[in-house]
Design brief:
Layout: E1 2-10, H1 27-39, E2 46-47, E3 56-66, H2 75-80, E4 87-95, E5 107-116, E6 129-131, H3 137-144, E7 149-152, E8 167-179, E9 189-197, H4 204-216, H5 224-231, E10 246-252
Parallel strand pairs: 3-10, 5-6
Antiparallel strand pairs: 1-3, 1-4, 2-3, 5-9, 5-10, 7-8, 8-9
């Protein structure tokens, strides 16, 4: 039995998330169907983590076990020819039996993209949340530093989260402003919010972003971010940001 790991990119727009759901139409479903077509085997694909409906991935890491003897260098092309065009296997390798895409992961990075301009970008609209009003970027940058470190993130996860422990460690959290070229307001452009941690709770990054947006709009002071975190109360934080601006950027082992 071989343990195959692969890195996959996908546009989550038309999927009900990564993990198999009763309603079907998930990224996991598509991957398992492609493997069945290729090898004749019914397998279970394990991912580094679930992504919600509408969320994208630049480098999701998955693994599965197979009896197939197909050379590892042929897996990517073989699967891509059997997958829809919005899912691409970027690489594949054979890993030890003990490797587990989720349990073996050490660090994950998510990025959230906000288009700050009067009009949305017609070509990037599926991957950027459009915010037509002014955002105080300096206040948002000040606020995001509060989440770095080991904390209980109850305030920043869905009330439907079933895990007992809400403690996670955030190693890095930053906001990069990529300004538009030309004669446009200096705040116009794209905000890339990047968060790296040892794990994430259900809707955690999207709620952090939703709270940061309210701070950027002047609805909350930047200093409130720490108080929200310490309150351990979901009702204290902002709304859950739209799914399409979020992307699983990388996973480290």
């Amino acid at each position: 039995m071989r343990n195959i790991r692969f890195v996959v990119s996908y546009d989550g727009t038309h999927y009900s998330g990564f993990q198999t759901q009763p309603s079907g139409n998930t990224v996991q479903d598509q991957l398992e169907k492609a493997i069945l077509k290729l090898t004749g085997e019914t397998v279970k694909v394990t991912s580094s983590g679930r992504t919600d409906a509408g969320v994208h991935a630049r480098a999701q890491v998955c693994n599965f076990h197979t009896d197939s003897r197909i050379p590892v260098e042929r897996w990517s092309m073989a699967l891509n020819s059997r997958l829809p065009s919005d899912i691409v296997v970027r690489s594949a390798d054979e890993v030890p039996e003990t490797f587990h895409a989720r349990k073996s992961a050490k660090r994950k990075t998510y990025s959230y993209f906000i288009r700050c301009s009067k009009f949305h970008d017609v070509f990037e609209r599926a991957y950027q949340y459009h915010h037509p009003g002014h955002l105080d970027i300096a206040a948002m940058k000040d606020a995001i530093t509060a989440i770095v470190g080991e904390h209980d993130f109850t305030s920043f996860c869905s009330v439907h989260t079933e895990l007992e422990s809400k403690v996670r460690t955030i190693y890095e959290a930053a906001i990069e402003h990529i300004p538009d070229a030309g004669d446009l307001p200096e705040t116009s452009g794209v905000l890339k919010i990047t968060v790296t941690g040892n794990g994430f709770l259900y809707n955690m990054v999207r709620i952090i972003v939703g709270t940061l947006i309210e701070i950027g709009e002047g609805k909350r002071p930047a200093a409130e971010m720490r108080a929200i975190l310490e309150a351990r109360d979901r009702s204290r934080a902002g709304p859950t940001a739209m799914a399409h601006g979020l992307m699983l950027w990388s996973v480290e082992y």
